[in-house]
Amino acid sequence: MATRNFKTFWDIEKEKTWRIYVLFAVLILLYFCPVFVLWSLIKFFIDIRRTLYRAGSSFKLFGFDTFVVLIIAAVAAGIHWYYSNKGVVSKVLRFLGAKYPDKRDKYHNVFQNVVDEIETAAGGFKVERYVLPTGAMNAFALADFSGRRVVGITEGLLSRLSRGELQSVIAHEISHIVSNDCLHTTITCSLFSLYSEALVHFNKTLSRHGSQPIPAVAGAVPQNVATVGLLSFPALLLLFVTDILGQLLNMFISREKEYRADASAVRLTRNPVSLASALYKIGTHWRGAGYGGEHIAAIFILSPLSRKFDEQEDFLATLFSTHPPLLKRLQVILHLAHADLTEIIRHVKEAKTIKTEVEVIKPVLRFHAQNKEKWQGPYTILQLQSLEWLEPGTRLRLIDHDEVLRAEEVPALSYFFQQRNDPAWKMRRLCPDCRKWLIVQNYEGLYLWCCPFCNGLLAEGDKLPRIFVRREKGFSERVQRLAEVMSDEAKKKRPHLSVLLSMSNPRPCPKCGQDMVHKFYSYAYHVEIDECQSCRLIWFDPDELEILQCLIEMG
Ligand SMILES: [Zn+2]
Ligand SMILES: [Zn+2]
Asked: Which of 119, 173, 258, 544 is catalytic?
């Protein structure tokens, strides 16, 4: 039994306490030192003044007052501890921009199923699941005193790992939670590093405000810059101090925990090769540096920053680094698998070329449909699904045929009638051009709205990053050629172009009806889109989403 290898809850409880006491002692010391120095200086100067009137100094460095200083430090440390640990999991999740898995996303459902499996294998542990909407490759675990346990993964990792690799990564994260080292990591992060993380966010917000469009009032700009600078300086200083402290405390988060979690993941999944190839994939991709989370690196499977330092094994590196060297980790795992690294590398090496798909022109069936005794159409199967009045009993006639049949007798439509009661189908939107109902369509594991009459696509802006990291879809040569032309154009024209484009008749938003803004997707990608500024819905003309996706994959 895999669960036998884990310690019982009470063993863990006993073991965790000493580390937590040490952490608290460090915190008291942290407050004690400056207060003690300050108090000693005050005492010293009072003593000097007193010796001016009376002979003989009564200065003593330690005394009853030292005890009072210690109490003050302990109270301050207690307050610091309390506020740092209060809702720490929510704080970290907010900084990382973590989202609940989307129930209507195929990839997210695979993630949920894999977590279910590993929970069972680990003895029925229950964890909360989160997804980070970034193309970076990483995974993390969090736990706090209130009993919250969280496992999270980035979209990038979710879209690039095989199921076996995903199992290994989740097993690694759940092992951190089961062995409880996750709690120490989270507490250490909450006490020190989280402040650095908060300051980074603070600075980012400031600089974002600083770089806003130039205001009309003259003189407003320098003032703004000055404020930013003035506010940033103490913030940066504080960042520096807390960061150093956080780094120092990484010694409590020993590198050993990563080896232990790797070993435990192999026990749970019985698949060392998958774990090795997952780690290799993560190690050779962008892990999220710059996205956030660098200061709380310890919670991730591999540090978001790739520092040379982390790949060393000497005393200092062991002390300050949150993770052991990747190569060493791989060697340990591969030893278990009796495999060698070149095998893994060969296994992982993904073709960097873009998947080409042959555009098949299938003969499309078209039907006339009878509405109120009148024959209308012809319509394709998809177009029929967009008709408000289509019922299972609606009479259909195949084009150029006399035979009449009921709509539910057409296999593709009978599936549609079953699906029609799903809430996503009921949430109807009108095509901004044809004014026909859009229908829900699967696109790389997600649901988008599509117009069967003009082939336009409607997507929620926050779903696009998921589409861009997924590599399921191939592109026809036509789309690839269009993408190449556009990328050349973007390179030539970039400096002079604005993202906003004018349109004589703005399209109405399919959700709220307001005018959408016609623009390029970005300066780098000259794909024309229409975006509703309040609903964040984006309308793509035929092929445009594919072209954009192809452009992004071409890099
Ligand atoms: Zn349309
Ligand atoms: Zn809208």
From this structure: 173
